[in-house]
């Protein structure tokens, strides 16, 4: 059995035959369970108005499905974001009017260079995906990333998220970050069924003990060791080749990815955050008033 995560942009009619809507906020999360395993599909509901809807939808995914039938700046922004996030597996949904030569020239030399041009139906597309090619890290300490959270009467605080590493176990004590408080896993559900544990790659609903709903944000994590948030991010900054020089100047920037969207000031290869962020290895850089808004990435130096 496999757990596959898909991103889909501007393809509501295409995907409706293969997935069912589960959760909706500024991103829509769909699901499918079949004999091969589980599929979670993210779609950026509030994009293009809200740029973090795009980065939050794409950040965890294994395959990208992008509407290649409409050439505009938003298609370009999706391509830039997927390129910077190293999304090497995917396809463009096209039709007989699509200028595939132009599209192939746009993605030439990028991480999307091997994306297929697909003009079939969604169900047939599923059969072409190698759902066992991308194996999550099942070894090491457990880590869960949270995308939604809420209170349930008689249950308490419930979070929805993904097991990134290791195996999550019922009654396990973990740190809730960035709050830095210890919480206990009261129960685990996958597809509305109770389980005693959940392996890496799983989408889970977790009832937590000792978790204050006010201390949770999207992008919070559950880990064995406490994670120390970063006030300053230092690392190698890489601007996308499509970004003009005037956009690359130091100044206000937002870091994104891993369900984070937080403001900082970029200066001399360092970003000083208004609010500390969790210590991921890389972040996407956003300038919300620029064209394109997705401008680059920073890969953190080992500290």
Automatic annotation (TrEMBL):
Does the record carry Transferase as a key word? no
- Tell me where on the tree of life, at the top rank, the source sits: Archaea
Q: Which InterPro entries match?
A: EF-Tu_GTPase, EFTu-like_2, Transl_B-barrel_sf
The protein's UniProt keywords, in alphabetical order, are: Elongation factor, Protein biosynthesis
A biological process (GO) of this protein is: selenocysteine incorporation
Annotated Translation elongation factor EFTu-like domain ranges read 156-223
Question: Which GO terms label this protein's molecular function in UniProt?
Answer: GTP binding; translation elongation factor activity
Entry annotated with the keyword Protein biosynthesis: yes
Q: What is this protein's name?
A: SelB-II domain-containing translation elongation factor
Species of origin reads Cuniculiplasma divulgatum
Classification lineage: Archaea, Methanobacteriati, Thermoplasmatota, Thermoplasmata, Thermoplasmatales
């Amino acid at each position: 059995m496999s757990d596959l995560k898909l991103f889909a942009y501007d393809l509501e009619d295409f995907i409706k035959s293969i997935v069912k809507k589960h959760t909706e906020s500024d991103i829509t999360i769909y699901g499918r369970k079949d004999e091969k395993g589980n599929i979670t599909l993210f779609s950026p509901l509030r994009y293009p108005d809200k740029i973090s809807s795009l980065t939050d939808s794409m950040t965890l995914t294994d395959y990208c499905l992008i509407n290649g039938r409409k050439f505009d700046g938003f298609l370009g922004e999706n391509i830039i974001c997927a390129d910077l996030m190293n999304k090497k597996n995917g396809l463009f949904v096209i039709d007989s009017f699509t200028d595939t030569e132009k599209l192939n020239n746009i993605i030439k030399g990028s991480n999307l260079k091997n994306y297929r041009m697909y003009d079939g139906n969604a169900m047939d597309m599923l059969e072409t995906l190698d759902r066992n090619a991308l194996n999550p890290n099942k070894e090491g300490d457990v880590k869960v990333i949270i995308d939604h959270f809420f209170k349930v009467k008689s249950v308490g605080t419930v979070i929805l998220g993904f097991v990134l590493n290791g195996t999550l176990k019922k009654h396990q004590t973990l740190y809730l970050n960035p709050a830095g408080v210890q919480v206990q896993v009261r129960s685990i559900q996958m597809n509305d069924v109770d389980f005693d544990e959940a392996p890496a790659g799983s989408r889970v609903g977790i009832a937590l003990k000792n978790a204050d709903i006010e201390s949770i944000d999207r992008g919070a994590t559950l880990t064995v060791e406490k994670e120390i948030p970063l006030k300053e991010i230092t690392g190698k900054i890489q601007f996308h080749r499509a970004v003009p020089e005037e956009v690359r100047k130091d100044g206000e920037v937002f870091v994104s990815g891993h369900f984070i969207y937080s403001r900082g000031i970029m200066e001399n290869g360092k970003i000083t955050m208004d609010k500390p962020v969790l210590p991921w290895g890389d972040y996407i850089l956003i300038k919300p008033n620029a064209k394109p808004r997705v401008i680059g990435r920073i890969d953190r130096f080992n500290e």
